[in-house]
Amino acid sequence: MPATVSARDLNHGYGSLEVLAGLNLDVGAGEIVALLGPSGCGKSTFLELVCGLASPSVGTVDVGGTESAAGRLAACAWMPQRDCLLPWYSALDNAALASRNQGASRAAARARAAERFEHFGLAGFEAAMPDELSGGMRQRVAFIRTLVSGKPVLLLDEPLAALDAITRAELQEWLAPVLAEAGATVLLVTHDVEEAGYLADRVVVLSPRPGRVLSTEAGARGTPGDRAEVVSSPGFNRLRERLLETLGSGAPR
Amino acid sequence: MSFRSWLPPLVLLAAIFGLWQVAASSGFMAEVLGLEPFLVPSPSEIADVLWRDRSLILENARPTLVEIVAGFGLALAAGLAVAVLFRSSDLVRRAGYPLVVASQTIPVIVIAPVLVVWFGYGIWPKLLVIALICFFPIAVNALDGLRSTDPEAVRMMRSLDASRSQVFRRVEVPTALPSVFTGARIAAAVAVIGAVFGEWAGSDEGLGHLILQDNAQLMTARMFASVFVLSAIAIALYAFIGLLERAVVRWR
Fold first, then answer.
1. Which of B150, B153, B158 sits opposite A73 (nearest CB)?
2. Do B159 and A97 lie within an 8 Å CB cutoff?
3. Of A62, A181, B57, B111, which alpha carbon lies 20 to 30 A from A130's?
């Protein structure tokens, strides 16, 4: 069951560094929202506040009706920017980590993760160690690890940023139905305008640090056609221009 | 291990022993040192004694080996326990770390006789001396290993419902293992020194005891023979830990 996410007047900082200043955001159950913003605007910090790994200095975050950090931790699955695959586990054991943590037996957890390997283009790589996998494959293992947690909210921190442009475009196209199937509420942090516009229901543009919401645009999620068609359509071009303009207007002078 | 990796140390060792053999058997070394030739044994004389007195040396090697293995085990248990304790609490670590460093500054040669006074001629003073020497490298390396854990991996695990003990078992312990093995290998190499000091402080058996006796009787060849056996014990323990590491830490 997807859950709602609601942030109210979030302020957060590290020492004298102000990272978020008055951020407000509401995400509906099952909605995919992309957070777009320049580097260092507090996007990653925001995800960590939402998932309960940190608590805001000022303001509240509500996930599925609970504001406690423990409740938020239980409701959210966080996928960090680096894949964080554990080098001592095989691809399959890495993918099975969430189920293992939740108390499933090793066999049951592996079986559950293994179901996804074929669909994720990883068939035959179950026993491979992380250093034997390409960047794109590692990222897909990390996706399985996040998805099999079965959590109602997925927080993806620049999941494709470490990949080359071609792999990134391919994985964006692959990710769309994967996220639809997951049926979760998704917060996707990215600095890639096309990725945000293509994958999300809504694109939220953040200001440079300290981050707050500059604008919200409707994304192209669910538009029929393959990725190349969608991102070259006149409508998407206008969206791209508006997003880039907002990003540029907020840039420091 | 392959022949190629064994070859360089073997060649070096053979060269050293060859030079020693020539220098000792020609009387050159004794002359330079101004000693009687029988005080400067050649490797072949040492090998002779090693073979001739093999039962005596073996008889004394057994208790020394037991002391080393048990003392090393004691240090391993204590070192790992302290590392885990220090990792679990920053306050305990800051309070206890100076003591761990101090443990390494205790002059073993001074403390060994005291331990004999306290615990008698049995195995305990030897165990404690060996454990004292081995404890520091094991504890410090294990703690460094635990502290090198990737904090982002820990947060990823917490977000995926890992408990504190699951984070420990699945992230921190595997992260620390290579360092733990490094500490254990260093400890294995120095454990032998602890055994000799422990026996010198008071014992009626062991290779350290035998060396002390042979020293009093100027039996230098047999002293060297005992030293070689001690070295062999240390190298064997070191190699065993290395093999264990290769079997356990397979992701490296």
1. B158
2. no
3. A181
Domain B41-248 falls in which CATH fold? Answer: MetI-like fold (1.10.3720)
pTM, whole model, 2 decimals? 0.87
pLDDT digits (tens, 9 = 90+) for A202-239: 999 998 888 888 888 888 888 888 888 888 899 999 99
Collect all residues of chain A within an 8 Å Cβ-Cβ radius of residue B245.
none
Nearest-neighbour CA in chain A from B174: distance (Å): 7
pLDDT digit string (tens) for B242-252? 999 999 999 87
Report CA torsion sign: A131, A137, A143, A149: negative
Q: Taking CB atoms and an 8 Å limit, are A80 and B171 in contact across chains?
A: no
Q: How far apart are CA A221 and CA A46, in angstroms?
A: 23
Domain ranges of chain B: 1-39, 41-248
Query: Going by C-beta distance under 8 Å and a sequence separation of 6 or more, which residues neighbour residue B201?
Result: B112, B113, B115, B116, B125, B129
A223: Cβ contacts below 8 Å, ≥ 6 apart: A230, A233, A236
- B251:A88 CB<8 A: yes
Domains of chain A (ranges; CATH) run 5-83+152-183+191-249 (3.40.50.300)
Contact yes or no for A149 and B170 at CB 8 A: no
